[in-house]
Amino acid sequence: MNLIQKAICKYNDSIARVFPDEGAVFSPKTVLFDMDGVLYDSMPNHAIAWEESMKKFGITMTKADAYATEGARGFENHTAFCERTARSGHHTRGSRSHV
C-alpha cells in the first residue's frame, strides 16, 4: 500500500469514527497535486487564513504580508511575525501569544 492509499484509509477511518452511521467512503479514482497554483490559485484563501489565524494570537499579519511571504514555509512566517510582534510590543489585549 502506498502513502496516498494509507492516507485515504486513515481519512476514511477518522470519518467513520465521527460519523459511524453514514457509511461514506472516500475512494478517488485520481489524485492531482497542485503545489504551485497552476490548477487553482489558493493564495487569496491562504492570505485570509494567515491573517485570521495570527490575529487569534495577537499577531498582526495582513493579507499583504501573506503575499509578501508567499512561498516561505509556514514555520518561517510564524517565527518572523511573532518576533516582529514581540519587538513592537503591540500584542492584542488578551492575546495568547507566547513570544
Task: Walk me through what this model shows.
The chain is mostly helical and 99 residues long. Helices cover 52% and strands 0% of the residues. It has helices at 3-18, 43-56, 63-68, 74-88. The longest helix is centred in the first third of the chain and has 16 residues, at 3-18. The radius of gyration is 19 Å and the shape is elongated. The termini are far apart.
Structural class: mainly alpha
Q: Name the helicity range.
A: 40-55%
Query: Quick check: average pLDDT?
Result: 80
How would a crystallographer describe the biggest sheet?
A: none
Envelope shape: elongated
How many helix segments?
4
Report how far apart the termini are.
42 Å
Strand runs, count: 0
Q: What percentage of amino acids are in beta strands?
A: under 5%
What's the alpha carbon Rg, rounded to whole Å?
19 Å
Order of helices and strands: HHHH
Uncertain regions spanning at least 5 consecutive residues: 93-99
